[in-house]
Design goal:
Layout (H helix, E strand, L loop, with lengths): L4 E8 L5 E7 L4 E5 L11 E2 L8 E8 L5 E7 L4 E5 L11 E2 L28
Antiparallel strand pairs: 1-2, 2-3, 3-4, 5-6, 6-7, 7-8
Length: 124
């Protein structure tokens, strides 16, 4: 069965497995990942571990230690993020990107990549 999406982003787990993130037609943020590098895919899952996030836009980056981090704009125009607890690991859950204001609003998240091949996440 093919998944339909409004937007797609991808990231690489530290162990080499690809993980894709996409906004479904129901505006839920989903992800799907390879079971092994160059291997089969697990299948569509809402990005968790809590209730499914409903989003407008997404951006994906990788932290220095190899953890994937996803930034997204919710239907309320607030910027959120979710990240792996450890490289190749489970997800922490939805958090406001800017905990001080808890209402950081944006129209387009983006993730910057350093030119020296080490990556980090940032948001405009």
């Amino acid at each position: 069965m093919a998944s339909l999406a409004k937007a797609v982003e991808s990231g690489s787990n530290k162990d080499g497995r690809i993980e894709i993130f996409y906004i479904g037609l129901d505006v839920v943020l989903y992800h799907n990942w390879q079971l092994a590098p160059n291997g089969y895919w697990i299948g569509e899952n809402p990005l968790g571990p809590s209730k499914p996030a409903k989003v407008k836009q997404i951006a994906v980056g990788q932290n220095e230690d190899g953890r994937i981090e996803v930034f997204y704009i919710g239907l309320d125009d607030v910027v959120y993020h979710n990240w792996q607890l450890a490289p190749n690991g489970n997800w922490i859950g939805e958090f406001f990107w800017d905990r001080r204001s808890k209402q950081r609003r944006s129209r387009s998240p983006w993730v910057k990549t350093r030119t020296d091949a080490s990556k980090f996440s940032t948001l405009a």
